[in-house]
Amino acid sequence: MSVTNPSEFSTGPDGADLQVAANGQLRHLLTLRGLSRAQITDLLDQSDKFLSPPGTPVIRSQALQGRTIASLFFEPSTRTRASFQLAATRLGADVLNLDVNTSSRAKGESILDTIYTLQAMQVDIFVVRDASTGVPAFITSHTNGYVSILNAGESTVAHPTQGLLDLLTIRQHKGAFENLAVAIVGDIAHSRVARSAAEGLMTMDVGELRLVSPPGLAPDSATIPGARLLHDLDAGIRDADVVMALRIQRERIDDIDGIPGMDEYAANFGVSHERMKLAAPDAIVMHPGPINRGVEIESSLADSSSSVITDQVTNGVAVRMAVLSTVARTMDVQ
Ligand code: CP
């Protein structure tokens, strides 16, 4: 689709902040950019309350009873889609997972007409993933004031609930952010995960943020002010407390010339047991998934005691429960 007035972040055509209600509460979640440290901390603290020990019953509440959540994923997803569905169900909502491939979108219906149709069925919260920049803000600018839009992955620019679950996982394992060196490794240029994690980490005053990539997959240096850009994995990992590996987002790259092949990438940017010897002794390894085992991360490292990848997945449900309950509370007082 074409978006006439795309905004990468959270402003409408008039420049107003779309995310936050007049009373300062979170109304939509489009990006972590612009959220305060207190707002992020509050979401992480709420997420903690939705976690229960493995093997024990999950936490449930009726915070979303009477509310309807619709998931519209115009790109593939396993983790984000499943965890939003579980989060909404555990909070007592009615949940609609629209299969976009068999919906009237396939007959040419626009995304806004799809939203208007579901809005007329009293959907309260839309969870949206799309390959185009600006879609969540565009929808937010064109929907009724009483619905809420949650960005579940926007092009290369934002994946705010992934950023929150990454922050929660780091805080669980490492405590305060101020003394940490965090290395995000891989295709930073095309990674909405890297952007949202980096924005969140900078807001939380992380000690040092390193973005490590091949030159052809480096971000614009202005993308994340304050981060160090490196092209050497050994230098990037050295003494790091947290190492986050990313896959190459080949589906977003038009011109593959200059982009390393799988073997070259694995040799130069694959995070391995050997390379992790350079990191801090108790460093953790993260990956947002889906993983290409043996490419950006050594398969046995992904399953090792240093890996917190399954914690990230678990935390994804808790974070999405926190975000859903927060925007529902904002709706309740409007
Ligand atoms: N991390 C992430 O967004 O995974 P999915 O694409 O499976 O949702």
Blueprint of the fold:
Blueprint lengths: L36 H13 L18 E6 L5 H12 L3 E5 L12 H10 L4 E6 L4 H7 L6 E7 L5 H15 L6 E5 L6 H12 L4 E5 L15 E3 L2 H5 L4 E4 L16 H8 L3 H4 L7 E3 L12 H4 L6 H25 L1
Parallel strand pairs: 1-2, 1-3, 3-4, 5-6, 5-8, 6-7, 8-9
Bound molecules: phosphoric acid mono(formamide)ester.
The site of phosphoric acid mono(formamide)ester has 10 residues, from helix 2.
Low-confidence stretches: 1-8
Main sheet overview: 5 strands, parallel
The strands making up the biggest β-sheet line up spatially as 7-6-5-8-9
How many helices? 11
The helix/strand series, from N terminus to C terminus, equals HEHEHEHEHEHEEHEHHEHH
Mean pLDDT: 92
Share of helical residues: 25-40%
Tell me which oligomeric state these chains represent: single chain
- How many strands in all? 9
Query: What hetero molecules are bound to the protein chains?
Result: phosphoric acid mono(formamide)ester
Radius of gyration over C-alpha positions, nearest whole angstrom:
19 Å
Shape: globular
The percentage of residues in β strands lies in 5-15%
